[in-house]
Amino acid sequence: MRVVTTGTELLADALGAQAVATERVDWRPPVTAAGSDVVTDLARVALDPRRADANRRAVDAVLGVTAHLVDVGPASEVLGLERGEFLHAGPPIDWERASGPLRGALMGGAALEGLVDDPEDAPALFADGGSVSLEPCHHRGAVGPMAGVVTPSMWMWVLEDLETGRRTHCTLNEGLGKVLRYGAYGPDVLTRLRWMGDVLGPLLRSAVRRVRDAEGPVDVTGILTQMLQMGDEAHNRNRAGTLMTLRDLGPALVHAGEAGDVSDVLRFVGGNDHFFLNLAMPTCKLALDAARGIDGSTMVVAMARNGTDFGIQVAGTGDEWFTGPAQVADGLFLGDYGPDDANPDIGDSAITETAGIGGFAMATAPAIVRLVGGTVPDALATTRRMHEIALAENPRWTVPVLDFQGTPTGIDVTRVCRTGILPQINTGMAGAVAGVGQVGAGLVTPPAEIFPAALARLAELAAR
């Protein structure tokens, strides 16, 4: 017999006296940024009489939301975004600390809005900061993939929970490769964005409103339910979801404009498998926002990255961000790119994992491993492992290969700290240098220290 002991030496000494082979591991409770230990914080939160009921209410609130597509409009109209105001992915950040892809997207956005003639002139504008402002998408009821930059003229999806009237928003998806959200800002990028503003957005608005008024708004939560049965996980694989959206809006699009423009829109959407991602993200945010502000709840309601910091928000801690350094994903690279070319993780798209799909639902989309790396057994194991840190399962979003088990829903800060299991995210990778665009895709986890930091805050609130 061989025994491994951790912590106190009493057991190891007793076994040694009996000639039992013993391996001593020097372990002590991890310490949070606040100086208290995780074990003590876990005990304080566990004793919080509000916690069990608060988490039940948070889960019920999230599972009770149904997102419907009610409109499409420019950010100036649907968010009240004004000239010189820019939204971005992740927790708050300023130009000085912004990563390459975020800087590139802001530079392109400034040129799109006519604030500069040449994107290369934009850094001085942002460095000065007098006439522009930066704010997280999450602070304005929105989410943005990768850099997540939103400017007033960009068109946005508008999703609504019909029962409560709450809304969330997201830009239209540009496609892959050299696109603004990956930090590219060349003439082709700006030309595409202008076409999306002049043609794509208005035609989609006409189609969405026609469907809404004639048949009722498109049930996006329902599309998500179906696509998870069809091999999508709704983060990096959205093929079925995109085609179902095209099915629902296609007939109305035919009546929305000139034949040539409609043909271009159908070709653009049909050729962009990621088009539905920008509907999946606000659907997940709409559900998770329902749990915000529930005192005592330990559920994570947002995971977001700005390319420099990775931040989480928790239902029971208000709007506070708990941040740490964003990590570089481990995965597959395009062409000659490699790890040295990749920027640390970026984007609000981890809202899908926060809601229990994306990397949490890799078992339902085994083909995803061909994009982000790993193996099919890895994908199955990942979904099973994520259940260990989740408060519940989603009976609406199920995984056929796991006997239709619901996806793991409601990341619990206490379970992450107790098990050491970090949420799994599958993601695209942006080039570290502004203007490069996408360099690959892979798997990543949050920095471990942000969960003990959130736990310490929960423990502090529980002690009041």
What level of helicity do the residues show? 25-40%
Q: Provide the residue-averaged pLDDT.
A: 94
Strand portion, in percent?
Answer: 15-25%
Q: Report the strand count.
A: 18
Count of DSSP H/I helices: 16
Based on Cα principal axes, name the global outline.
globular
Radius of gyration: 23 Å
Structure report:
It is a single chain. The chain has 464 residues and is α+β, with helices and mostly antiparallel strands. The chain has 3 domains: 29 residues, no CATH class; 189 residues, v583 domain like (v583 fold); 210 residues, Enterococcus faecalis V583 fold. A 5-stranded mixed beta sheet has the order 6-8-7-3-9. A hairpin with a 5-residue loop joins strand 15 and strand 16. The longest helix has 29 residues.
Descriptive labels:
464 residues; alpha+beta; v583 fold; Enterococcus faecalis V583 fold; five-stranded mixed sheet; four-stranded antiparallel sheet; 18 strands
Quickly describe the structure.
With 464 residues, the chain is of the alpha+beta class.
How are the SSEs placed, and which strands pair?
Layout: E1 2-6, H1 10-17, E2 21-25, H2 38-46, H3 51-63, E3 67-74, H4 75-78, E4 85-88, H5 100-112, H6 122-128, E5 133-136, E6 142-143, E7 155-161, E8 167-171, H7 187-215, E9 218-219, H8 220-227, H9 239-254, H10 259-270, H11 277-289, E10 300-306, E11 309-314, E12 322-325, E13 330-333, E14 346-347, H12 351-354, H13 369-372, H14 376-386, E15 390-399, E16 405-411, H15 413-419, E17 425-430, E18 438-444, H16 450-462
Parallel strand pairs: 1-2, 4-5, 6-8
Antiparallel strand pairs: 3-7, 3-9, 7-8, 10-11, 10-14, 11-12, 13-18, 15-16, 17-18
Helix pairs in contact: 2-16, 7-9, 8-9, 9-10, 15-16
